[in-house]
Amino acid sequence: MKNALKAVGLSSLLLFSNSALSQKFENLAQTPQMGWNSWNNFDCDVNEDMIKQMADAMVESGMKEAGYEYINIDDCWHGERDENGFIQESKAHFPSGMKALADYVHSKGLKLGIYSDAGTKTCAGKPGSRGYEYQDAITYAKWGIDYLKYDWCSTENVNPIGAYTLMRDALHSAGRPILFSMCEWGDNKPWEWAKDVGHSWRTTGDIYPCWSCEKNHGSWSSWGVMPILDMQKGLRKYAGPGHWNDMDMMEVGNGMSFEEDKAHFSIWAMLASPLIAGNDLRNMSDQTRKILTNKDIIALNQDKLGIQAMKFIDEGDFEIWVKPLENNELAFMFLNRSDNAIDYNYDWQFNIYKDDIFNYYIDFNKESFNWKNLWEKGSGNTNKKLKIKVPARGVQVLRLTPEK
Predict the structure, then answer these.
(1) What is the CATH number of the domain that holds 83?
(2) Which of 369, 361, 367 is nearest to 401 (CA)?
(3) Which domain holds residue 317?
(4) Strands 330-336, 318-324: parallel, antiparallel or unpaired by DSSP?
(5) Per-residue DSSP letter, 24
(6) CA atoms within 13 A on the CB side of 287
């Protein structure tokens, strides 16, 4: 049996599993997942002490209380595969073992995530899961893993639907509910086929901590906040409870300005993207902490309707986005893409809100709403014209509640 496992891999032996098991875990990510990931700030420099410290910091900073729950280890945690093909953690960086680390994270009331790749190698050249999907799923379940980010490097001539569906089935057969985060970069339009495969799917390449830039890496690019926002055009109809458009991990606290960070966080919340922090939680500024724990903005992201915001008005460098919420409430985001602050006058009663995809029609001449500013003090009513100052490269976000 041992030689057989070495020859063909346990994955091949388990492909005959009952088709009834071929599904993703339901009741996960009913609202966009919230957590932290190591890659944006630490790259390959991961170890068990740092991960424990991040779990501690998530609790102590108030992020856990605000709704964050996943501590996710990205690439480079890997050791080698054993003689039977089972993946091992790096003994140098995780000497206590991944199971002990998961137990520690769980003891904090949090969940542990891990990373792999649909190809033969991960993006950093570590062992990928291709050909070992069922073995890796069994290992993750044994370790107590709660989240899998599954990348798309080293996948030449691999069918993405087949590759991601295979890992979905492997995770389900292992029996432990694991959130499946597909990181396919949007190359093969996963929004069109992955609703029943993953709980979220990346819609773009990697993010970069800038407002409106492209960082060229030669054969690929990473993108600033505005380019990623623009890449979401036409995708909102595909998002909903249990299946989200993922705009990548956040760069809040990683070098952009205060207003840019606020806008970045607001955009991710409004568009129902997973809120996965990518900064060093142990030494973040109070300013960064307040952004990441703004419960009013988080509530927009976690609204149970799960409707992604629509671009309602486009005036070039100035945009208005609208997100329907539970109880007939609405969120309005005024986005200033330019380098200069804008004083904006908005006539609610002149602009009828019409959303054909989710069947919303609101005439502010016939319906009145009270509004609250979610970043600054301020409130008002839609019976009066709105006068608002939107900072350069910034936003103002209002929550509208029907007037009783």
Answers:
(1) 3.20.20.70
(2) 369
(3) 310-402
(4) antiparallel
(5) P
(6) 11
pLDDT of residue 10: 42
Q: Kindly report, residue by residue over 328-346, the tens digit of the pLDDT.
A: 999 999 999 999 999 999 9
Which amino acid is residue 45, in one-letter code?
Answer: D
Which amino acid is present at 271?
A: L
Question: Is 100 strand, coil or helix?
Answer: helix
375 and 238 in a single domain? The answer is no
Q: Please state, in angstroms and rounded to a whole number, the distance separating the CA atoms of residues 37 and 28.
A: 18
Q: Which residue has the tokens 């903005």?
A: 297
pLDDT at 14 over 60: no
The answer to whether 116 and 132 have CB atoms below 8 angstroms apart is no
Same domain for 325 and 206: no
Q: How many residues does the chain have?
A: 404
Are 134 and 170 spatial neighbours (Cβ–Cβ below 8 Å)? yes
Cα-to-chain-centroid distance, residue 309: 15
CB 237 within 8 A of CB 309: no
CATH number, domain with residue 338: 2.60.40.1180
Instruction: Give catalytic residues, as residue numbers.
Output: 151, 206
Distances (CA, A) of 99 to 36, 71, 104, 350, 395: 19, 14, 9, 59, 43
Which helix (H) or strand (E) element contains residue 201? strand 200-202
Mean pLDDT of the chain: 94
Residue 318: left (phi > 0), alpha (psi -120 to 50), or beta?
A: beta
Which residues lie below 8 Å from residue 95, measured CB to CB, with a gap of 6+? Answer: 48
User: What one-character DSSP code corresponds to residue 161?
Assistant: H
Residue 234, φ and ψ in degrees, nearest 5: 85, 5
Q: Are residues 207 and 352 in the same domain?
A: no
Can you tell me the distance from the alpha carbon of 110 to that of 278, in angstroms, rounded to the nearest whole number? Answer: 17
Spell out the long-range contacts of 41-45 with Cβ–Cβ below 8 A and sequence spacing 24 or more. Answer: 41/254, 41/278, 41/279, 41/280, 42/74, 42/280, 43/76, 44/75, 44/76, 44/124, 45/76
Helices (H), 144-294: 160-174, 225-230, 258-270, 286-292
* Residue with tokens 């991040």, as numbered in its chain: 54
Same domain, residue pair 349 and 205: no
Do 163 and 153 form a contact (C-beta atoms < 8 A)?
no
Predicted confidence (pLDDT) at residue 232 exceeds the cutoff of 90:
yes
- Pair of tokens at residue 218: 């030669």
Q: CA-to-CA distance for 37 and 33, rounded, in angstroms?
A: 12
